[in-house]
């Protein structure tokens, strides 16, 4: 009997998890705890901090320590977390080199005859080398990256004028090169990638990252086993997997965002490039997972009903214990969001400045990170809201934030589901959201646990905020309703749907499917 394995296909993991990464790791926990299946997390992006990130996520309870994480570059570099660390000494120097510590850090600048020739970046906590930049005549020409064990991991050669990467060489932990990547001018995509043996000889050549990923997937997918591949990053994996389709490889893409490029008519607008290959033929995947019923309806109306569509919303690992409304800070409003254009945080800030005109003691705290932080900070200053609206750092565990607030806001143009809306409601914090595709309307019952406002209708949005903040009894009632209606976010509900999906893909009874069809124990039904 073939052994059967389940893999979740992602790009990367980081200290500040994206919504997709968070959802994938939570799903992994549900599979292990509710279905008795231990999936493997698969990533393809080079990340020389991945060893530490794994440990960090386990320590913070985000990643189950029994769930393996494999990475394409670590595979070829033969990296593993239990290698002994190398004792990296301070930078060796020629007699005419001058070392200068960087105040407030453990970094070191190196000068020769008064000119900067090296910048050594070290981690603040442990002093481990992260990377070393090399300079020539004031321009950066090379960067050496080190892994968490102190091994030289990658050397990048840069164009002296543009700082563009021209060539990268990746190294095994024994110091031998294993991959070279060559970049054409004015391109961030490598067009020639070569795998090297221990003597430096070329063993394989690829025209780009996609071909390398295809080759790697062929290596890790054994022909003697059956795989259920749940794809969280389709633009990276879906096309390469089409090259290795077999009866033993079951492909299950998850649609994590709107399937169209724009907010226009979902039945005619251009397709989101992340999913174009999927929707070119919806019958190819073994199943397609969507997060909301409304998106499923829109997709079926446009692409037909022949695809094997399943709706499996995000859920909570465990529903929070309700807290007394009196513990929440009166008139404190929050939002958790990337600081990016599609989130419309400029609208949120502008609207809240008008709320403060009517409710002077109201405050808004926006937690997140992103490229627009500077612009948003400037807008807050221009509106004179420095004492009322605050931009806060990203937080990995926002439970205390939700439980300290009386209301949260969402002003996005679009979502596939909106994890923050689910989390806020599960913590008894009502939500006011634009009525967008997709997600909020399947969680918010207007007037009960929050409000839905037509997208862009700022006057109504402001009225809803003011009405709640000036009516504490209504606010408390909505908080209670949020707790009660959040029962549908329980992990057991997701487990049932995944069991049905996986069980339906294969008609053969196997060890894997016997686990799926086994009833959940009473202790796991929550």
From TrEMBL:
Pfam families: Glycos_transf_1. InterPro entries: Glyco_trans_1 (IPR001296). The keyword Iron does not apply. Keywords: Transferase. GO terms for molecular function: transferase activity. Residues 327-484 form the Glycosyl transferase family domain. This is Glycosyl transferase. The gene is tagE.
């Amino acid at each position: 009997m073939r052994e059967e394995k389940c893999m979740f296909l992602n790009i990367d993991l980081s200290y500040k998890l994206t919504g997709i990464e968070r959802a994938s790791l939570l799903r992994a926990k549900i599979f292990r705890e509710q279905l008795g299946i231990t999936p493997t997390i698969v990533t393809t992006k080079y990340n020389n901090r991945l060893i530490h990130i794994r440990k960090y996520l386990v320590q913070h309870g985000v990643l189950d320590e029994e769930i393996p994480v494999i990475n394409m570059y670590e595979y070829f570099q033969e990296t593993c977390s239990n290698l002994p660390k190398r004792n990296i000494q301070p930078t060796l120097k020629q007699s005419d080199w001058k070392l200068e510590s960087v105040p407030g850090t453990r970094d070191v600048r190196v000068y020769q005859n008064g000119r900067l020739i090296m910048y050594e970046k070290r981690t603040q906590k442990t002093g481990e080398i992260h990377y070393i930049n090399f300079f020539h005549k004031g321009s950066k020409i090379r960067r050496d990256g080190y892994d968490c064990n102190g091994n030289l991991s990658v050397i990048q050669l840069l164009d002296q004028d543009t700082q563009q990467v021209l060539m990268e060489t990746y190294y095994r932990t024994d110091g031998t090169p294993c991959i070279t990547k060559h970049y054409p001018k004015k391109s961030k995509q490598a067009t020639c990638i070569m795998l090297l043996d221990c003597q430096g000889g070329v063993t394989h050549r690829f025209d780009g990252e996609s071909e390398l990923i295809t080759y790697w997937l062929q290596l890790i997918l054994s022909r003697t086993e059956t795989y259920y591949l749940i794809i969280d990053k389709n633009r990276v994996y879906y096309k390469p997997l089409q090259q290795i389709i077999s009866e033993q490889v079951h492909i299950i893409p998850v649609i994590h965002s709107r399937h169209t490029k724009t907010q226009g008519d979902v039945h005619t607008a251009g397709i989101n490039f992340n999913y174009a290959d999927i929707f070119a033929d919806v019958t190819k995947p073994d199943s397609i997972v969507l997060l909301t019923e409304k998106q499923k309806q829109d997709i079926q109306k446009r692409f037909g009903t022949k695809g094997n569509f399943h709706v499996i919303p995000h859920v909570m690992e465990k529903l929070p214990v309700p807290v007394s409304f009196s513990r929440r800070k009166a008139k404190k409003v929050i939002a958790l969001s990337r600081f990016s254009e599609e989130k419309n945080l400029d609208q949120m800030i502008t609207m809240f400045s008008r709320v403060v005109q009517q409710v002077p003691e109201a405050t808004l705290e926006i937690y997140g990170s992103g490229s627009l932080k500077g612009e948003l900070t400037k807008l807050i200053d221009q509106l004179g809201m420095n004492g009322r609206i605050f931009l806060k750092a990203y937080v990995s565990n926002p439970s205390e934030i939700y439980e300290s607030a009386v209301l949260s806001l969402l002003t996005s143009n679009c979502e596939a589901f909106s994890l923050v809306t689910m989390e806020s409601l599960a913590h008894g914090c009502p939500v006011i959201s634009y009525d967008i595709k997709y997600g909020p309307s399947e969680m918010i019952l207007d007037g009960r646990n929050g409000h839905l406002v037509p997208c862009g209708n700022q006057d109504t949005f402001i009225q809803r905020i003011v009405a709640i903040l000036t009516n504490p009894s209504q606010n408390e009632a909505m908080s209670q309703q949020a707790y009660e209606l959040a029962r549908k976010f329980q992990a057991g509900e997701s487990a049932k749907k995944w069991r049905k999906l996986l069980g339906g893909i294969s008609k053969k009874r196997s060890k894997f499917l016997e686990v799926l069809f086994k009833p959940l124990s009473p202790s796991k039904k929550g």
